[in-house]
Amino acid sequence: MSEKKVSIKDLLGLSDEEMRKPLPNPTPWSRPFWEAAKQHRLVLRRCSACGNIDHPPYPYCTACLADEHEWIEAQGKGTLYAYAVNYYGVPFPFWDDMPYVVAMIDLPEGPRMISNIVECDIEKLRNGMELEVVFDDVSDEISLPKWKPV
Amino acid sequence: MERGEFAIIGTGEVPCGHFPERSEFEIAYTVAREAIRDAGIDVKEIGAVVCAQHIMSNPANDYNTEAVFGRLPEAIGARGCKITCMTSSGGASSFSLRKTAEGILHSGETDTVLVVHAQRFSQFTPNEQAKYFSVAGSDVEWEVPYGMTYNSLAAMVTQAYMTHTGTTIEQIAAVCVANRRWAMLQPNAMFNKKEITVDDVLSSRMVSYPLTSLMCNVLADGGSAFIMTTAEKARKVCSKPVYILGEASDYSHRTITRAKKKDLEKLWEFLAPVAKTAFERAGLGPEDMDIYQIYGSYPCIQLIVMDALGMWEPGSTGALVASGATSPGGKYPVTTNGEALSFGHTGTGVGIALLVESVRQLQGKAGKAQVEGARFLIENTGGGAFMDCHFTVLGNEIPG
Ligand SMILES: [Zn+2]
Q1: Beta pairing partners, B219
Q2: Residue B141's closest chain A neighbor by CA?
Q3: Which of A72, B174, B252, B384 has the greatest CB tally within 10 Å of its CB?
């Protein structure tokens, strides 16, 4: 694959704005997650009243409606539940990344996350394979947790 | 709702496809008049106009704003209209619109409700559409930053379903083939000119593995309408009313990662109790159905909904579809308008078109697609990232 790819930006004459990737815009109740991610730590919101873990988090516990909670450190481990490989028809900012893998990752703490699988040949993807978290510093403010094979 | 308390007595529909010159307003006015004429009622009898949401908005002349502010009753001459509103639950709108109509009828304010849908996607650029649908099916904070799209959502569910049930990609493709065969019999379908084969589906461009482009639906312009009334009035004004015999609903999630049924390949376990309740309320069973009108939107979802009906062994429906049993002339007609994959994806209108087709079938007005002697059918819909599920049993008679 020595063929040099032409960016969709040059091909269609797109502006920087049109090529800007969408980033999370943290809410008051999700900010601790993104602040931890920035330090390359994966954290989860656990209700102090009932122990329920909410991910994505909401302002109060979705199991018992209590406010009190703590942010616990996740192990940073996961298993691959299912995946897709995007080859066509994605928004322009992701065009040059194709093919890329979008996946559902199950955490031992309970939650499931959508993320990308990185540092893995597409042919080697297997449902149930073990993964570990890596952080992609996509801006000064945001680091996205992504996953690679153990 | 009591069994058979409400009925649909007329429908209207325009061709679905790429029609940039035909505005969403023109579509709405056209299907409204067609439904009124089909029902054989006077426009002045309409006491409520309930509008479906137009997906995406044109700031220069926004259909949703116009509909919410009462454009439709004025434009179609519904001078007896007392109530107008918009109701939306995305792909599940056919159900929430009907529920709204039932509520209005139940209130006694009027005995005749017109429901209207119109959509013109072609006024937006492909990238605008791609951007909208990347956030419609996915969470803007937790999924969209990873390049998630609607197609990748469906692709992941398909990938999980195939892995855990042994369903093959050829069987998934067979759903597209069967839908296309039905669409071939529909004058208003977007894709009704050319049959497709399993090979065509598999060799079309890979979009989001394992989904190829022919497994993904195409956004289209179109619209439809129907007239709903009380059973009492329906019997007076219509020779073949279509009764709502039983319906049931459930909601699961917004974000797919928080689905109530985590094993998505067993999504049928979430759907099955809902279908069962709808059958029980109708006093009928799955084997009594002459047609199964399934809103799949993606081929794998059609199979998962079929798995939920209590009619076939879950996981075996791919083989059933591949056998041709769900195609025209088959033992189990499924989705007789070809729905999103071949009729065309008109936003909130996919399920409405399927409901309208259900009514046509039970009124004997389905033309070449007519299933002879159809009396009862089950219809379903759902929206968002497979967020909810609604089943309805319809019939042209109220079983004893
Ligand atoms: Zn709690």
Answers
A1: B345
A2: A24
A3: B174
